[in-house]
Amino acid sequence: MKALVFLVAANVIAATYSLAQGVRCVVGMVKGSALFSRPLAWVIFSGDQMMAYLTVSAVAAAAQSAAFAKLGQPDLQWMKICNMYGEFCNQVGEGIASATLVSASMVVLSCISAFSLFRLYGGDRDEDGARW
User: Fold this and answer.
1) What is the DSSP-derived secondary structure letter of residue 75?
2) Mean pLDDT of 24-50
3) Which residues on neighbouring strands pair with residue 73, listed in sequence order?
4) Where found in the cell (predicted)?
5) Comparing C-alpha atoms, which of 128, 105, 113 is closest to residue 49?
């Protein structure tokens, strides 16, 4: 069940990144500054993308591992272990469900980050040169 260790490690990394972003946002609000820097926007976007991919891959690996634990793999002679450890398997399922919500939240956050980044690159302007 090394996939579960990977899931926990990935969630710790994502939580640490989110905490750092939260501190950055609070400091920005206290100082009264907003994000208008393209390089900083790219760093935030890249970090959000990495966290989204990390959490999605960790959930996928843990879900596959949980499926093997629940269903077994007769071709490889892997037995079903959820028959022996039912409570553990229930807790793993709850953890994977929670991690799935976290992963979906990271994907949504990544989309918001992409929107914030690409709006810095202009867009529609009318004949006066003003933004739409």
Assistant:
1) G
2) 84
3) 78
4) Cell membrane
5) 113
- pLDDT digits 0-9 by tens, 64-104: 888 877 777 777 767 777 777 778 888 888 999 999 999 99
* Residue among 101, 99, 113 at smallest CA distance from 21: 113
Tell me if 65 sits within 8 A of 1, measured CB to CB. Answer: yes
Tokens of 94: 């709850």
Q: From CA 63, how far away is CA 131, in angstroms rounded?
A: 46
Q: Which two tokens stand for residue 49?
A: 């993308």
Spatial CB neighbours of 95, under 8 Å, sequence gap ≥ 6: 4, 7, 62
Q: How is residue 83 annotated by DSSP?
A: T
pTM of the complete model: 0.79
Q: What is the pLDDT of residue 36?
A: 67
Q: Domain locations in the chain?
A: 2-120
Query: Which residue shows structure tokens 């959820």?
Result: 82
What are the structure tokens assigned to 100, written together?
A: 């799935």
Q: Where are the beta strands (DSSP E) in 51-126?
A: none
Least confident of 107-111, 119-123, 126-130: 126-130
